[in-house]
């Protein structure tokens, strides 16, 4: 069970959406907040200048107090990519972060930091390019292989607490290999929940779980490129939160050759994206 919501900031304005979304999440899940401020560049010659975290911390405290959230403040010096995974693992936190406002040249040379965070953070991760509160519409990407069960469970908890509606989304990709099951899914994708395929059974079970919990739920099925179709549905449906499993739930060679769908989605997303690795023990 997660012990807190770990909100990350490096003092840049780009990181502010994580504070608003993280505060909302903490209140709805009844979890305390740890606001982790990371000083990535400390100039000893500027000792009399305002600390880069000062303004953001002041603003965050105002948000937390307005929401009635329990919180504590911590500061670390160093690289966010090294510090955050260690802090998250220590308390088994749900990590909330936004873009960190790195220079374009740094992003070009080292790549987007979100990819490294997905790889190194084992705990659930909420990426917030822009805040969406309150959350009233949740999209859950369901692959049908069970790797998304933990993300689905977190999404269900959020929906129950906030009275949000859920849509379970499955993407049927173009067939590469003509196996009987994949052929059946591709042929019947427009009424997939009526089939006896593994994906059809999984979608029916997800619907039953949601309705048993008193959550309004529906199923969306699209056909085409997985990344493009998830992005399109999230935009067209105007969802407040997208939840999906992580490729790092898969302990196989698949990681070596398949696209990191989660990272690609996060880089394109215009709403918060929650990802969680599969674990035999549920987060809540």
Q: What do you see in this structure?
A:
By secondary structure, this protein is an alpha/beta fold. It has two domains: 5-127, 3-Layer(aba) Sandwich (Rossmann fold), CATH 3.40.50.620; 137-276, Rossmann fold, CATH 3.40.50. Helix content is 40%, strand content 19%. The protein is built from eleven helices and ten strands. The chain has a ten-stranded mixed sheet, with helices on both faces. β1, α1 (16-29) and β2 (33-39) form a beta-alpha-beta unit. It is globular, with a radius of gyration of 20 Å. The protein starts with a strand and ends in an 8-residue tail after the last strand.
Short synopsis of the structure:
This protein is an alpha/beta fold and 284 residues long.
Shape: globular
- CATH architecture assignment name of the largest domain: 3-Layer(aba) Sandwich
Distance between the termini: 5 Å
**SS elements, strand count:** 10
How many domains make up the 3D coordinates?
2
The DSSP helix count reads 11
- Classified in CATH, the superfamily of the largest domain is HUPs
Strand content: 15-25%
Physical arrangement of strands within the biggest beta sheet: 3-2-1-4-5-10-9-6-7-8
The whole-angstrom Rg is 20 Å
Q: Assign the CATH class of the largest domain.
A: Alpha Beta
Quaternary organisation of the protein chains: single chain
Structural class: alpha/beta
Could you describe the largest sheet, including whether it forms a barrel? 10 strands, mixed
**pLDDT < 50 stretches:** 251-258
